[in-house]
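Reminder to self: keep the SMILES exactly as supplied, no canonicalising. Ligand is pyridoxal-5'-phosphate.
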Amino acid sequence: MLDAVRGFYENHNANVHRAVHTLSQEATALYENAREKIKKFINAQDSAEIVFVRGTTEAINLVAYSWGLRNLKSGDEVLVSLMEHHSNIVPWEILSKINGFRIQYAKVNSDGTLNYEDYESKFTSKTRLACLGHVSNVSGVINDVKRIGKVAHEHGALMLVDAAQSVPHMPVDVKYLDVDFLAFSGHKMLAPTGIGVLYGQKELLEQLAPFQGGGEMIREVSFSQEQNRSSISWNELPWKFEAGTPNICGAIGLMEAVNYLERLGMAEVLQHEKALTEYALKRMQECSNVMVYGPSDLQLKCGIVPFNVDGLSSHDVALLCDNYGIMLRSGFHCAQPLHQIFKLQSSARASFYVYNTTEEIDRFVDVLKEIANA
Ligand SMILES: Cc1ncc(COP(=O)(O)O)c(C=O)c1O
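Structure tokens returned for the bound complex:
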């Protein structure tokens, strides 16, 4: 990935889609190859369904403003689960203040799993959109987004999936899931920061208004002297949603990260993380004064272990572990409603990826024992 980014700047650095010169042609080819790669990686139908954005947050905001602003009105309802990352709550809350629709929050069980009965019972003829994270960034719980998407479609509603924590960690097939929108971020899957993807079904994206205005996203801007007015037609998909100079090297880096992940195999990535999680959960039981949250059934979750140490704040735990070179996240992980359900101010979070090993977990558990019993 690093070589690909460096290679782009050394050999092909130019803007895309605007110039006839060689470098621009090369940059455009690489950028569009990256789109094609992502299309295949998530099994989309068409590369027009792959919109490059800054990340999951921008992807969800794109849907909120391009679709929601024009389609949600007073009397409508949007369903959101209480385990969402704030990026799948706040855009809808902001928009509901503008357009006057209601947000219905679906419950989460005390072990962090989704209360499917509650979510499904909240669908009515007013529901226009169902939002759900594929994997919780706090507990690692994997949600059956296909099941909720099916119910959404039966009610004539759309389904948006926050896949920030699934696309990097498991095979994700948008055709199989049959969802309308799916968002993820490159920086969680070995790619640079500032690049992410919104997948949207083509027929749907075609109906959407642009998100931001500027260069690249237009086909034509013509000015009428008589009417003192310009008329604008939008570019084709997906460029209609990519105003301004895109993150070209980010997309190229993402392509290379995907090449790498594909070489590992996404099923193997998931298996590796589950094995590490199982090992960590088992070993953490040896630590007194440590509370672990979320389900222990590995069928229900992947590589994230939230926990607290009795008598210490999560930031203290993270700082103490940091002294030993162990990086944990601490705080409420942009998911405060879920922490309220867990009746917690915050949690520390151990999470695993392709590069982690059982030896690192052994080291972590040794440190944890020292901290918890100090
Ligand atoms: C589940 C989930 N959704 C959304 C986001 C937001 O992603 P980004 O900050 O890349 O936009 C994150 C990031 O932590 C996440 O874990």
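Points to follow up:
The chain has two domains: 2-264, 266-373.
The first strand starts at residue 50 and ends at 53.
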